[in-house]
Protein backbone atom coordinates (compact mmCIF):
# COMPACT_ATOMS: atom_id res chain seq x y z
CA UNK A 1 0.00 0.00 0.00
CA UNK A 2 2.82 2.35 0.86
CA UNK A 3 4.49 1.57 -2.46
CA UNK A 4 1.23 2.39 -4.28
CA UNK A 5 0.93 5.74 -2.50
CA UNK A 6 4.52 6.65 -3.35
CA UNK A 7 3.86 5.83 -7.01
CA UNK A 8 0.73 7.99 -7.00
CA UNK A 9 2.62 10.90 -5.46
CA UNK A 10 5.42 10.63 -8.06
CA UNK A 11 2.91 10.59 -10.91
CA UNK A 12 1.19 13.65 -9.48
CA UNK A 13 4.48 15.55 -9.35
CA UNK A 14 5.26 14.60 -12.96
CA UNK A 15 1.78 15.68 -14.05
CA UNK A 16 2.15 19.09 -12.36
CA UNK A 17 5.60 19.56 -13.93
CA UNK A 18 4.24 18.62 -17.36
CA UNK A 19 1.23 20.92 -17.07
CA UNK A 20 3.32 23.89 -15.92
CA UNK A 21 5.73 23.55 -18.88
CA UNK A 22 2.88 22.88 -21.29
CA UNK A 23 1.18 26.09 -20.18
CA UNK A 24 4.31 28.19 -20.68
CA UNK A 25 6.74 26.73 -23.26
CA UNK A 26 8.75 29.97 -23.28
CA UNK A 27 9.15 29.73 -19.55
CA UNK A 28 10.48 26.18 -19.95
CA UNK A 29 13.23 27.52 -22.17
CA UNK A 30 14.28 30.50 -20.09
CA UNK A 31 14.18 28.51 -16.83
CA UNK A 32 16.94 26.25 -18.04
CA UNK A 33 19.09 25.22 -15.07
CA UNK A 34 22.28 26.03 -17.02
CA UNK A 35 23.55 29.50 -15.93
CA UNK A 36 24.59 30.45 -19.47
CA UNK A 37 21.15 29.54 -20.73
CA UNK A 38 19.49 31.71 -18.08
CA UNK A 39 21.80 34.63 -18.86
CA UNK A 40 21.22 34.32 -22.59
CA UNK A 41 17.47 34.15 -22.06
CA UNK A 42 17.50 37.25 -19.84
CA UNK A 43 19.55 39.24 -22.37
CA UNK A 44 17.22 38.16 -25.17
CA UNK A 45 14.18 39.27 -23.17
CA UNK A 46 15.77 42.61 -22.29
CA UNK A 47 16.82 43.43 -25.85
CA UNK A 48 13.56 42.34 -27.43
CA UNK A 49 11.45 44.08 -24.81
CA UNK A 50 13.44 47.31 -25.06
CA UNK A 51 13.18 47.27 -28.87
CA UNK A 52 9.43 46.67 -28.74
CA UNK A 53 9.04 49.47 -26.20
CA UNK A 54 10.94 51.94 -28.39
CA UNK A 55 8.97 50.81 -31.42
CA UNK A 56 5.54 51.10 -29.81
CA UNK A 57 5.76 54.07 -27.43
CA UNK A 58 9.25 55.53 -27.92
CA UNK A 59 8.51 58.12 -30.60
CA UNK A 60 7.98 61.80 -29.75
CA UNK A 61 6.05 64.22 -31.94
CA UNK A 62 7.28 67.78 -31.76
CA UNK A 63 6.97 70.90 -33.90
CA UNK A 64 10.29 72.18 -35.28
CA UNK A 65 9.79 75.61 -36.76
CA UNK A 66 7.16 75.43 -39.50
CA UNK A 67 7.27 71.61 -39.80
CA UNK A 68 5.87 68.78 -37.70
CA UNK A 69 8.41 66.09 -36.86
CA UNK A 70 8.61 62.80 -35.01
CA UNK A 71 11.79 61.65 -33.25
CA UNK A 72 12.69 58.15 -32.13
CA UNK A 73 15.66 56.06 -31.04
CA UNK A 74 16.26 52.83 -32.93
CA UNK A 75 18.78 49.99 -32.47
CA UNK A 76 21.75 50.37 -34.80
CA UNK A 77 25.17 48.87 -35.40
CA UNK A 78 26.98 52.14 -36.08
CA UNK A 79 24.74 54.84 -34.56
CA UNK A 80 24.41 58.23 -36.26
CA UNK A 81 21.39 60.35 -37.14
CA UNK A 82 18.96 59.80 -40.00
CA UNK A 83 16.58 62.56 -41.08
CA UNK A 84 13.76 61.42 -43.37
CA UNK A 85 12.16 64.15 -45.48
CA UNK A 86 9.28 62.41 -47.19
CA UNK A 87 8.87 62.41 -50.17
CA UNK A 88 12.10 64.27 -50.95
CA UNK A 89 14.57 61.74 -49.57
CA UNK A 90 16.79 61.45 -46.52
CA UNK A 91 20.08 62.62 -45.10
CA UNK A 92 22.41 60.77 -42.73
CA UNK A 93 24.89 62.20 -40.25
CA UNK A 94 27.78 60.47 -38.48
CA UNK A 95 26.84 62.25 -35.28
CA UNK A 96 27.85 59.55 -32.78
CA UNK A 97 28.98 55.94 -32.40
CA UNK A 98 26.63 53.86 -30.26
CA UNK A 99 24.16 50.96 -30.64
CA UNK A 100 21.32 53.47 -31.00
CA UNK A 101 20.42 55.75 -33.91
CA UNK A 102 18.39 58.93 -33.81
CA UNK A 103 15.63 58.92 -36.43
CA UNK A 104 13.94 62.22 -37.26
CA UNK A 105 10.95 62.15 -39.60
CA UNK A 106 9.81 65.47 -41.06
CA UNK A 107 6.15 64.62 -41.47
CA UNK A 108 4.56 67.72 -42.96
CA UNK A 109 4.77 71.47 -43.37
CA UNK A 110 2.24 73.12 -41.08
CA UNK A 111 0.11 75.40 -43.30
CA UNK A 112 -0.62 77.93 -40.54
CA UNK A 113 2.99 78.40 -39.41
CA UNK A 114 4.38 78.40 -42.95
CA UNK A 115 1.77 80.95 -44.05
CA UNK A 116 2.80 83.16 -41.15
CA UNK A 117 6.38 83.06 -42.42
CA UNK A 118 5.24 84.00 -45.91
CA UNK A 119 3.21 86.93 -44.60
CA UNK A 120 5.96 88.06 -42.20
CA UNK A 121 9.31 87.29 -43.90
CA UNK A 122 11.15 89.21 -41.18
CA UNK A 123 10.58 86.18 -38.95
CA UNK A 124 12.98 84.14 -41.09
CA UNK A 125 15.86 85.96 -39.38
CA UNK A 126 15.05 84.25 -36.07
CA UNK A 127 13.86 80.97 -37.55
CA UNK A 128 17.11 79.08 -37.00
CA UNK A 129 17.27 80.04 -33.32
CA UNK A 130 13.64 78.98 -32.89
CA UNK A 131 14.32 75.65 -34.60
CA UNK A 132 17.38 75.04 -32.43
CA UNK A 133 15.26 75.53 -29.29
CA UNK A 134 12.58 73.20 -30.66
CA UNK A 135 15.17 70.53 -31.41
CA UNK A 136 16.66 70.79 -27.90
CA UNK A 137 13.21 70.52 -26.27
CA UNK A 138 12.25 67.59 -28.49
CA UNK A 139 15.50 65.79 -27.63
CA UNK A 140 14.85 66.12 -23.90
CA UNK A 141 11.31 64.76 -24.32
CA UNK A 142 12.69 61.90 -26.43
CA UNK A 143 15.24 60.94 -23.76
CA UNK A 144 12.54 60.76 -21.07
CA UNK A 145 10.10 58.88 -23.34
CA UNK A 146 12.81 56.40 -24.37
CA UNK A 147 13.66 55.60 -20.74
CA UNK A 148 10.00 54.87 -20.00
CA UNK A 149 9.67 52.88 -23.23
CA UNK A 150 12.60 50.51 -22.66
CA UNK A 151 11.77 49.92 -19.00
CA UNK A 152 8.09 49.28 -19.77
CA UNK A 153 8.82 47.03 -22.74
CA UNK A 154 11.45 44.90 -21.00
CA UNK A 155 9.41 44.65 -17.77
CA UNK A 156 6.22 43.66 -19.59
CA UNK A 157 7.98 41.02 -21.68
CA UNK A 158 9.86 39.75 -18.63
CA UNK A 159 6.60 39.38 -16.73
CA UNK A 160 5.02 37.51 -19.65
CA UNK A 161 7.99 35.15 -19.96
CA UNK A 162 9.08 34.58 -16.38
CA UNK A 163 5.78 35.21 -14.54
CA UNK A 164 7.88 36.48 -11.64
CA UNK A 165 7.76 40.19 -10.70
CA UNK A 166 11.34 40.21 -9.41
CA UNK A 167 12.75 38.89 -12.68
CA UNK A 168 10.54 41.23 -14.69
CA UNK A 169 11.78 44.22 -12.69
CA UNK A 170 15.37 43.00 -13.16
CA UNK A 171 14.79 42.92 -16.91
CA UNK A 172 13.46 46.48 -16.82
CA UNK A 173 16.41 47.69 -14.76
CA UNK A 174 18.88 46.03 -17.09
CA UNK A 175 17.17 47.63 -20.10
CA UNK A 176 17.47 51.05 -18.48
CA UNK A 177 21.15 50.40 -17.73
CA UNK A 178 21.77 49.41 -21.35
CA UNK A 179 20.05 52.56 -22.59
CA UNK A 180 22.11 54.67 -20.19
CA UNK A 181 25.31 53.01 -21.39
CA UNK A 182 24.30 53.61 -25.01
CA UNK A 183 23.57 57.24 -24.18
CA UNK A 184 26.94 57.61 -22.49
CA UNK A 185 28.65 56.13 -25.56
CA UNK A 186 26.76 58.55 -27.80
CA UNK A 187 27.73 61.47 -25.54
CA UNK A 188 31.40 60.43 -25.49
CA UNK A 189 31.59 60.10 -29.29
CA UNK A 190 29.33 63.05 -30.12
CA UNK A 191 30.53 64.94 -33.18
CA UNK A 192 28.76 68.32 -33.41
CA UNK A 193 30.34 69.05 -36.80
CA UNK A 194 28.86 65.94 -38.40
CA UNK A 195 26.12 68.10 -39.90
CA UNK A 196 28.85 69.80 -41.93
CA UNK A 197 29.35 66.50 -43.80
CA UNK A 198 25.89 65.06 -44.52
CA UNK A 199 25.00 62.27 -46.95
CA UNK A 200 21.91 63.08 -49.02
CA UNK A 201 19.75 60.59 -50.89
CA UNK A 202 16.62 60.82 -53.04
CA UNK A 203 15.52 64.15 -54.50
CA UNK A 204 17.51 66.00 -51.84
CA UNK A 205 20.70 64.87 -53.56
CA UNK A 206 19.78 66.93 -56.62
CA UNK A 207 19.28 70.16 -54.66
CA UNK A 208 22.60 71.93 -54.10
CA UNK A 209 20.84 74.62 -52.10
CA UNK A 210 20.15 72.06 -49.37
CA UNK A 211 23.80 71.01 -49.27
CA UNK A 212 24.85 74.66 -49.15
CA UNK A 213 27.94 76.25 -50.59
CA UNK A 214 31.31 75.34 -49.20
CA UNK A 215 32.47 78.72 -47.94
CA UNK A 216 29.47 79.40 -45.69
CA UNK A 217 29.59 75.88 -44.27
CA UNK A 218 33.27 76.06 -43.45
CA UNK A 219 33.34 79.51 -41.89
CA UNK A 220 29.92 80.26 -40.45
CA UNK A 221 28.54 77.17 -38.67
CA UNK A 222 30.14 74.96 -36.06
CA UNK A 223 27.30 74.04 -33.71
CA UNK A 224 25.19 70.94 -34.26
CA UNK A 225 21.84 72.47 -33.40
CA UNK A 226 22.35 75.52 -35.60
CA UNK A 227 23.43 73.34 -38.53
CA UNK A 228 20.43 71.08 -38.08
CA UNK A 229 18.28 74.21 -37.97
CA UNK A 230 19.81 75.39 -41.26
CA UNK A 231 19.02 72.07 -42.91
CA UNK A 232 15.43 72.13 -41.67
CA UNK A 233 15.11 75.72 -42.88
CA UNK A 234 16.30 74.77 -46.36
CA UNK A 235 13.97 71.77 -46.44
CA UNK A 236 11.15 74.13 -45.52
CA UNK A 237 12.04 76.22 -48.55
CA UNK A 238 11.91 73.06 -50.65
CA UNK A 239 8.39 72.36 -49.47
CA UNK A 240 7.37 75.90 -50.33
CA UNK A 241 8.69 75.48 -53.88
CA UNK A 242 6.09 72.82 -54.60
CA UNK A 243 6.92 71.92 -58.19
CA UNK A 244 10.54 73.02 -58.65
CA UNK A 245 13.65 72.82 -56.55
CA UNK A 246 15.08 76.16 -55.42
CA UNK A 247 17.80 77.83 -57.44
CA UNK A 248 21.32 77.32 -56.16
CA UNK A 249 23.07 80.58 -55.32
CA UNK A 250 26.80 79.83 -55.30
CA UNK A 251 29.23 81.77 -53.16
CA UNK A 252 31.08 84.21 -55.47
CA UNK A 253 34.26 83.49 -53.52
CA UNK A 254 34.15 79.78 -54.33
CA UNK A 255 35.24 78.07 -57.54
CA UNK A 256 33.57 74.78 -58.43
CA UNK A 257 35.35 72.04 -60.39
CA UNK A 258 33.62 68.85 -61.54
CA UNK A 259 35.92 65.81 -61.45
CA UNK A 260 34.89 62.93 -63.73
CA UNK A 261 36.77 59.86 -64.91
CA UNK A 262 36.53 56.49 -66.68
CA UNK A 263 33.39 57.19 -68.70
CA UNK A 264 34.09 54.19 -70.97
CA UNK A 265 31.69 55.06 -73.79
CA UNK A 266 28.61 55.42 -71.59
CA UNK A 267 26.41 58.04 -73.35
CA UNK A 268 24.37 58.61 -70.16
CA UNK A 269 27.47 60.23 -68.64
CA UNK A 270 27.06 63.33 -70.83
CA UNK A 271 23.52 63.90 -69.50
CA UNK A 272 24.70 63.48 -65.91
CA UNK A 273 27.65 65.83 -66.40
CA UNK A 274 25.49 68.44 -68.14
CA UNK A 275 22.97 68.33 -65.30
CA UNK A 276 25.69 68.75 -62.64
CA UNK A 277 27.27 71.64 -64.56
CA UNK A 278 23.91 73.43 -64.64
CA UNK A 279 22.88 72.73 -61.04
CA UNK A 280 26.20 73.55 -59.43
CA UNK A 281 27.27 76.25 -61.91
CA UNK A 282 30.55 74.47 -62.54
CA UNK A 283 33.56 76.61 -63.55
CA UNK A 284 35.58 73.77 -65.10
CA UNK A 285 35.34 70.03 -65.78
CA UNK A 286 38.42 67.83 -65.30
CA UNK A 287 38.34 64.37 -66.91
CA UNK A 288 41.11 62.02 -65.77
CA UNK A 289 40.84 59.74 -68.78
CA UNK A 290 39.53 56.41 -70.09
CA UNK A 291 36.73 58.19 -71.90
CA UNK A 292 36.88 55.48 -74.59
CA UNK A 293 37.07 51.68 -74.50
CA UNK A 294 39.32 50.87 -77.47
CA UNK A 295 40.43 54.29 -78.74
CA UNK A 296 39.38 53.64 -82.33
CA UNK A 297 38.42 56.32 -84.84
CA UNK A 298 34.94 54.82 -85.01
CA UNK A 299 34.42 55.80 -81.35
CA UNK A 300 35.31 59.47 -81.89
CA UNK A 301 31.72 60.75 -82.55
CA UNK A 302 30.97 59.75 -78.94
CA UNK A 303 33.00 62.83 -77.90
CA UNK A 304 30.93 65.36 -79.88
CA UNK A 305 28.65 66.42 -76.94
CA UNK A 306 31.63 67.77 -74.93
CA UNK A 307 31.65 71.34 -76.37
CA UNK A 308 28.00 71.78 -75.33
CA UNK A 309 28.40 70.73 -71.68
CA UNK A 310 28.55 74.37 -70.56
CA UNK A 311 32.03 74.53 -68.99
CA UNK A 312 35.68 74.27 -70.12
CA UNK A 313 36.69 70.60 -70.42
CA UNK A 314 40.19 69.58 -69.29
CA UNK A 315 41.23 66.08 -70.37
CA UNK A 316 44.17 63.70 -70.04
CA UNK A 317 44.61 60.44 -71.92
CA UNK A 318 43.83 57.16 -70.15
CA UNK A 319 45.13 53.71 -70.98
CA UNK A 320 41.95 53.07 -73.03
CA UNK A 321 42.35 56.32 -74.99
CA UNK A 322 44.58 56.40 -78.06
CA UNK A 323 46.51 59.21 -79.72
CA UNK A 324 43.73 59.11 -82.33
CA UNK A 325 41.30 59.99 -79.52
CA UNK A 326 43.61 62.73 -78.27
CA UNK A 327 44.01 64.39 -81.69
CA UNK A 328 40.22 64.35 -82.19
CA UNK A 329 39.64 66.05 -78.83
CA UNK A 330 42.27 68.69 -79.59
CA UNK A 331 40.10 69.88 -82.48
CA UNK A 332 36.95 70.26 -80.37
CA UNK A 333 35.89 73.67 -79.09
CA UNK A 334 36.24 74.40 -75.36
CA UNK A 335 38.45 71.32 -74.78
CA UNK A 336 41.95 71.51 -73.25
CA UNK A 337 44.07 68.41 -73.77
CA UNK A 338 46.99 68.10 -71.36
CA UNK A 339 50.04 65.93 -71.99
CA UNK A 340 53.72 65.86 -70.99
CA UNK A 341 53.16 68.44 -68.25
CA UNK A 342 51.36 71.03 -70.39
CA UNK A 343 49.60 73.67 -68.24
CA UNK A 344 46.53 75.81 -68.95
CA UNK A 345 44.47 78.33 -66.98
CA UNK A 346 40.74 77.56 -66.92
CA UNK A 347 38.08 79.03 -64.66
CA UNK A 348 40.77 80.92 -62.76
CA UNK A 349 42.75 77.75 -61.98
CA UNK A 350 46.17 76.71 -63.24
CA UNK A 351 46.00 73.02 -64.25
CA UNK A 352 48.79 70.78 -65.62
CA UNK A 353 48.67 67.14 -66.58
CA UNK A 354 50.02 64.23 -68.57
CA UNK A 355 48.47 61.40 -70.52
CA UNK A 356 48.87 57.75 -69.62
CA UNK A 357 52.10 56.39 -71.16
CA UNK A 358 50.41 53.04 -71.82
CA UNK A 359 47.69 52.13 -74.31
CA UNK A 360 46.07 48.85 -73.25
CA UNK A 361 42.58 48.71 -74.77
CA UNK A 362 42.38 44.92 -74.48
CA UNK A 363 44.27 41.92 -73.15
CA UNK A 364 46.20 41.48 -76.39
CA UNK A 365 48.47 44.40 -75.39
CA UNK A 366 51.13 43.66 -72.78
CA UNK A 367 51.25 46.59 -70.32
CA UNK A 368 54.54 48.16 -69.34
CA UNK A 369 53.43 48.25 -65.71
CA UNK A 370 54.01 50.66 -62.86
CA UNK A 371 57.57 51.67 -63.82
CA UNK A 372 56.26 53.37 -66.97
CA UNK A 373 53.65 55.17 -64.86
CA UNK A 374 56.28 56.35 -62.38
CA UNK A 375 58.44 57.73 -65.18
CA UNK A 376 55.43 59.68 -66.53
CA UNK A 377 54.77 61.01 -63.02
CA UNK A 378 58.39 62.07 -62.60
CA UNK A 379 58.26 64.01 -65.87
CA UNK A 380 55.02 65.67 -64.71
CA UNK A 381 56.63 66.62 -61.37
CA UNK A 382 59.55 68.17 -63.28
CA UNK A 383 57.11 70.22 -65.37
CA UNK A 384 55.40 71.40 -62.19
CA UNK A 385 58.70 72.62 -60.80
CA UNK A 386 59.38 74.45 -64.06
CA UNK A 387 55.98 76.18 -63.78
CA UNK A 388 56.76 77.30 -60.22
CA UNK A 389 60.15 78.60 -61.27
CA UNK A 390 58.49 80.58 -64.07
CA UNK A 391 56.14 82.29 -61.58
CA UNK A 392 53.03 80.37 -62.74
CA UNK A 393 52.57 77.71 -60.05
CA UNK A 394 50.05 74.97 -60.77
CA UNK A 395 46.97 74.59 -58.56
CA UNK A 396 45.84 71.13 -59.74
CA UNK A 397 47.85 68.34 -61.38
CA UNK A 398 46.08 65.67 -63.42
CA UNK A 399 47.11 62.11 -64.33
CA UNK A 400 45.11 59.02 -65.19
CA UNK A 401 46.93 56.43 -63.10
CA UNK A 402 47.34 57.04 -59.35
CA UNK A 403 50.86 55.57 -59.58
CA UNK A 404 51.89 58.47 -61.81
CA UNK A 405 49.93 60.98 -59.71
CA UNK A 406 51.84 60.03 -56.53
CA UNK A 407 55.10 61.22 -58.09
CA UNK A 408 53.85 64.84 -57.89
CA UNK A 409 53.85 64.75 -54.09
CA UNK A 410 55.19 68.01 -52.68
CA UNK A 411 55.03 69.87 -56.02
CA UNK A 412 51.30 70.78 -56.09
CA UNK A 413 48.51 71.12 -53.48
CA UNK A 414 46.06 68.80 -55.28
CA UNK A 415 46.44 65.99 -57.83
CA UNK A 416 43.54 64.17 -59.48
CA UNK A 417 43.49 60.63 -60.90
CA UNK A 418 41.12 57.83 -61.91
CA UNK A 419 41.78 54.41 -63.46
CA UNK A 420 40.91 52.11 -60.54
CA UNK A 421 37.09 52.64 -60.67
CA UNK A 422 36.82 53.44 -56.98
CA UNK A 423 37.02 56.59 -54.88
CA UNK A 424 39.86 57.38 -52.57
CA UNK A 425 41.36 60.45 -50.94
CA UNK A 426 44.66 60.63 -49.09
CA UNK A 427 47.30 63.10 -48.01
CA UNK A 428 50.62 62.01 -49.50
CA UNK A 429 53.80 62.08 -47.34
CA UNK A 430 54.87 65.57 -48.49
CA UNK A 431 51.45 67.23 -48.18
CA UNK A 432 49.87 66.83 -51.63
CA UNK A 433 46.25 65.68 -51.54
CA UNK A 434 45.54 62.83 -53.98
CA UNK A 435 41.90 62.45 -55.04
CA UNK A 436 40.95 59.39 -57.08
CA UNK A 437 37.53 59.38 -58.75
CA UNK A 438 35.41 56.33 -59.55
CA UNK A 439 33.80 55.60 -62.91
CA UNK A 440 31.47 58.38 -64.08
CA UNK A 441 30.28 55.94 -66.74
CA UNK A 442 29.48 53.21 -64.24
CA UNK A 443 32.15 51.02 -65.83
CA UNK A 444 30.73 51.60 -69.32
CA UNK A 445 29.65 48.64 -71.41
CA UNK A 446 31.50 46.29 -69.09
CA UNK A 447 28.99 47.04 -66.34
CA UNK A 448 26.66 44.38 -67.78
CA UNK A 449 29.28 41.70 -67.09
CA UNK A 450 28.83 41.97 -63.33
CA UNK A 451 26.09 40.62 -61.09
CA UNK A 452 25.42 44.15 -59.78
CA UNK A 453 25.88 47.28 -61.90
CA UNK A 454 28.77 49.56 -61.05
CA UNK A 455 27.70 52.87 -59.57
CA UNK A 456 28.15 56.20 -61.36
CA UNK A 457 30.50 58.54 -59.50
CA UNK A 458 31.56 62.17 -59.83
CA UNK A 459 32.74 64.88 -57.42
CA UNK A 460 32.24 68.63 -57.12
CA UNK A 461 35.35 70.31 -55.71
CA UNK A 462 35.03 73.68 -53.95
CA UNK A 463 38.16 75.86 -54.05
CA UNK A 464 38.76 79.30 -52.58
CA UNK A 465 38.92 81.85 -55.38
CA UNK A 466 41.70 83.84 -53.68
CA UNK A 467 44.01 81.08 -52.42
CA UNK A 468 42.80 78.39 -54.89
CA UNK A 469 42.97 75.80 -52.10
CA UNK A 470 40.45 73.00 -51.70
CA UNK A 471 37.80 73.79 -49.07
CA UNK A 472 35.35 70.92 -49.42
CA UNK A 473 33.93 68.48 -51.93
CA UNK A 474 30.64 66.72 -52.62
CA UNK A 475 30.82 63.06 -53.65
CA UNK A 476 27.90 62.33 -55.98
CA UNK A 477 26.94 58.68 -56.34
CA UNK A 478 24.18 57.45 -58.63
CA UNK A 479 22.79 53.94 -59.06
CA UNK A 480 24.29 52.05 -62.00
CA UNK A 481 22.60 50.47 -64.99
CA UNK A 482 18.86 50.16 -64.34
CA UNK A 483 18.98 51.87 -60.91
CA UNK A 484 17.72 55.29 -59.89
CA UNK A 485 19.24 55.87 -56.44
CA UNK A 486 21.20 59.04 -55.73
CA UNK A 487 23.38 60.22 -52.86
CA UNK A 488 25.45 63.33 -52.16
CA UNK A 489 28.05 63.18 -49.40
CA UNK A 490 29.74 66.37 -48.14
CA UNK A 491 33.39 66.26 -47.00
CA UNK A 492 35.53 69.04 -45.56
CA UNK A 493 39.16 69.43 -46.57
CA UNK A 494 41.19 69.18 -43.39
CA UNK A 495 44.51 70.97 -43.61
CA UNK A 496 47.37 68.52 -44.20
CA UNK A 497 50.10 68.35 -41.53
CA UNK A 498 53.26 70.36 -42.28
CA UNK A 499 55.83 68.32 -44.13
CA UNK A 500 59.40 68.70 -45.28
CA UNK A 501 60.55 69.14 -48.86
CA UNK A 502 59.98 66.26 -51.29
CA UNK A 503 62.67 63.66 -51.44
CA UNK A 504 64.98 63.41 -54.45
CA UNK A 505 63.31 61.26 -57.06
CA UNK A 506 65.22 58.50 -58.80
CA UNK A 507 64.14 56.68 -61.97
CA UNK A 508 62.33 53.41 -61.18
CA UNK A 509 63.67 50.04 -62.29
CA UNK A 510 62.49 48.60 -65.56
CA UNK A 511 60.33 45.51 -65.92
CA UNK A 512 57.70 44.33 -63.43
CA UNK A 513 54.74 44.64 -65.81
CA UNK A 514 51.27 44.82 -64.28
CA UNK A 515 47.87 44.56 -65.95
CA UNK A 516 45.75 47.70 -66.31
CA UNK A 517 41.98 47.93 -65.86
From TrEMBL:
Q: Which UniProt keywords apply?
A: Hydrolase, Membrane, Metal-binding, Transmembrane, Transmembrane helix
Q: Where is this region: Disordered?
A: 489-517
**Annotated ranges, domain Calcineurin-like phosphoesterase:** 255-422
Q: Which Pfam families did the record assign?
A: Metallophos
What is the name listed in the Swiss-Prot or TrEMBL entry for this protein? Calcineurin-like phosphoesterase domain-containing protein
Q: Which residues cross the membrane?
A: 39-60, 142-162, 169-190
Q: List cellular component terms (GO).
A: membrane
Q: Which GO terms describe its biological process?
A: lipid A biosynthetic process
Q: What is the lineage of its organism?
A: Bacteria, Bacillati, Actinomycetota, Actinomycetes, Kitasatosporales
Amino acid sequence: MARHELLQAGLARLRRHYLSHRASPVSALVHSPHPYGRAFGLVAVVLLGAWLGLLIVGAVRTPVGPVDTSMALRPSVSGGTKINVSPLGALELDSHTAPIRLDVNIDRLDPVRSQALVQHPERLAGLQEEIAQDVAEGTRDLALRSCVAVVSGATALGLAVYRRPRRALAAGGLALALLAASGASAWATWNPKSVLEPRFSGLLSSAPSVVGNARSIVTEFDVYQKELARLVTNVTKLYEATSTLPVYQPDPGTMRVLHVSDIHLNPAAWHIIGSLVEQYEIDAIIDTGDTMDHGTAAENPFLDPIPDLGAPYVWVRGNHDSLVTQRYLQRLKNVHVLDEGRAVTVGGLRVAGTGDPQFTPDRSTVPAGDPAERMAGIRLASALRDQSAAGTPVDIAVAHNPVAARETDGEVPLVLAGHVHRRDTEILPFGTRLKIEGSTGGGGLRAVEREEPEKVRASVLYLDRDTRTLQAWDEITLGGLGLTTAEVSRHLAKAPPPQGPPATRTPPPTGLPSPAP
